[in-house]
Amino acid sequence: MSSTALYTDLSGYYDLMCADIDYPAQSNGVRRLNQLFGNNGSDHLDLACGTGPHVRHFIDAGFNSAGLDINQPMLDIAQLRCPEAHFSLQDMCGFTVAAPVDLITCFLYSIHYSGTVERLQQCIARVHGALRENGVFCFNAVDKGQINNQSCARHTVEHDGSHFTFSSGWHYGGQGEQQALRLSIEKTTQGVTQSWQDEHPMVAVSFAELQTLLEPYFAVQVFEHDYARIVPWDGQSGNAIFVCVKL
């Protein structure tokens, strides 16, 4: 078995790595939240959109969707998936829009890619400025105090004659504003296994800290991390969906 650092361009494996994600359920859940709390508009922007699967579902539901990401190869795939959408190579902590939108989403815990609390503050301010009156910012997050360093998500996929095993898990050292997302891929082809590992630096915040950052800009509602049901956060679980209405 060979083992190397995971290459920075994940575009070729991104959809396989996310094969266990229920994109329709996530998209439908956020649309329901937007119906309840939003301004009834249909202009949508997806931050850290990757290869565009969420954008595809929003377009199919009648939204005017766009996406941004810092990875051009992923945006190239997104454009093929959603030829009617506009995608831009931008950092979510410093992005601009041509005109305000009604809904901004950030799925798959990607808000943590901000990396530092300062950059997270910049992202929140940019989102606020990009939304119309009573627009909604919806994202999911993990509370640094609830991270189990021994836990990881794992799934397998058969693709093009190879067997893939993907795993990912959060790690937090117990103090400071940095946590890590640890990723690994194993690919077995004709009995030969290759493996790649990587660790992405992510911003670490508690939900109380996150709400403090959001509240100058938004009216904040926090829900359990369940896209099939709208249930207020119980104050205990370490994963949640944030619905933020522009003030």
TrEMBL record:
Protein name (Swiss-Prot/TrEMBL): Class I SAM-dependent methyltransferase
Domain of life: Bacteria
Record-level GO BP terms: methylation
Domain Methyltransferase span(s) in chain numbering: 45-135
Keyword terms: Methyltransferase, Transferase
Taxonomic path: Bacteria, Pseudomonadati, Pseudomonadota, Gammaproteobacteria, Pseudomonadales
GO molecular-function terms, A-Z: methyltransferase activity
